[in-house]
User: Fold this.
Amino acid sequence: MCEACVQVFAQPCARCRRCALPVPAGQSLCGTCATSNTVLDAALAAVPYAFPWSKLVLEFKFAQHPGWARSMAILMRSAPWVELALDDADLLLPMPLSRERLRVRGFNQALLLAQALAPAKTQANLLLRVRETPPQSSLSRAARLDNVRHAFAMEPLYPVAVAGKRVVLVDDVMTSGASLTAAAQCLRQAGAAHITALVFARAERGA
Assistant:
């Protein structure tokens, strides 16, 4: 990613501190988050899921470019509040893939991002994907929430590994937030004290 594209397409914007959707300057919560509870304590995103980043993410995942994770992580670290979240975190947990999807893709893009962000704090085996689900991209928000219900679980060998910890959940894209919410619910039940979702790109409403 060249400096010119970063300057034009990756300028920081005000985002809701719980779902990372854009909000007017000076506003900390979107209307939805201001009037409802969410299992996530915070959500951070570096760029919108739009040109040119949407194409970059797709090629990163599906065209075998795992080496791009380091450059993407640099851009993520440059987003407001990300450095603080990483410094405060006890653990970085990448969103897990099912065995089948991992076999087909060959790598977990969320794990590569987490390792590039904070390798010493990254734990890849605490949060598990225990149920294969259809791709979220083809579903409505309500269907997405139902699709990932009970899809995640804690590793049985380490049932209290996140108890009382500040956890950062890492993924490449946040669309509806259904998967991150389902994973966060699992972590909350396991005793996590604070949960931040950190993604490279955030899809905006209607995108």
Residues 49-202 form a domain with the Rossmann fold fold (CATH 3.40.50).
